[in-house]
Amino acid sequence: MDVDRDANIKLEGQAAAGSLDRGEGTSPRFSSSIKGLGLLADLLDEMGIPATFFCEGRTLEEMRDSAGILDGFEIGVHGYDHEFLPGMIRPDAISAVEHGCQAIRDVTGRNPTCFRAPYMKQPRDIADFLKNTGIRVDSSTYAQADRCIPSMLPGYVVEIPVTEGRDINGKSVSAYLWPMHEGKRNPLDYSDLAGCVPEEGCFVLADHSWHICELRERGVLSEEDVKENLELERRALQGILDAGLEPMTISDASRLASPY
Predict the structure, then answer these.
(1) Sign (positive or negative) of CA dihedral 15, 184, 237, 195
(2) Residues whose CB is less than 8 angstroms from the CB of residue 179 and which lie 6 or more positions away in sequence, other chains included
(3) N or C: which end of the chain has fewer CB within 10 A?
């Protein structure tokens, strides 16, 4: 799960992301993400599903008083300001991720165990990029379902790709749940995709915490719509469990990696 600013957007001329303008400009907002995180954490706990939350440093700072929501879940880093890392000079990009790691330590007292690049844009030579963070697990790429298998990259970083593939109509589908929230996918699409992953592979499901409470096209949701959206999340997760998959964190999945 990605814990980042509400409805993030790239802003011209700056590395840090903003939020979609809902009438007060594009400065970053966090209320939907913080509320959605609490709802997701409760749902995952109720269903007995371990999870990894990839957190922006700044978002965690904004929710400092409620960061206990994350107790019992694995924490990864997702940059500091949801930076577009490929658009930055390398030292600045590395510094942004290290800043995110420090914010996570300051707020939670824990070190992040894994990394997911904002916008799923993995920096080149990821082992060198992460060397000062102590992180040796990355989840910043996609892989087709039949090849979605943890692997060891040069430099001893384990790559855990997010799953993608084709639906029954031959259309592209990824294991990010946001298209479901936006009305473009249904829960069954994800259990169908999970069934395409080989026994030695990992089905990696992803979502945004803010997407429970806010949609790009419809804006901030009513309480009733939030409940319906959360029920979609439950149905998607239950369908995957019913398909016989064993839930685990990204770090747990990294132990399944084969050497390169």
Answers:
(1) negative
(2) 173, 185
(3) C
**pTM across the whole model:** 0.96
Q: How deeply is 27 buried, as exposed, middle or buried, from its count of CB atoms within 10 A (0-12, 13-18, 19+)?
A: exposed
In terms of C-beta density within 10 A (0-12 exposed, 13-18 middle, 19 or more buried), how is residue 63 classed? buried
Superfamily classification of domain 2-254:
Glycoside hydrolase/deacetylase (3.20.20.370)
Q: Are 154 and 133 in contact (CB under 8 A)?
A: no
Query: What distance in Å separates the CA atoms of residue 63 and residue 116, rounded to the nearest whole number?
Result: 20
Q: Reading across the β-sheet that carries 142-144, which strands appear in turn?
A: 142-144, 162-166, 172-174
Q: What is the pLDDT of residues 55-64, one digit of tens each?
A: 999 999 999 9
**How far apart are the C-alpha atoms of 58 and 60, rounded to whole Å?**
5
Domain ranges in the chain? 2-254
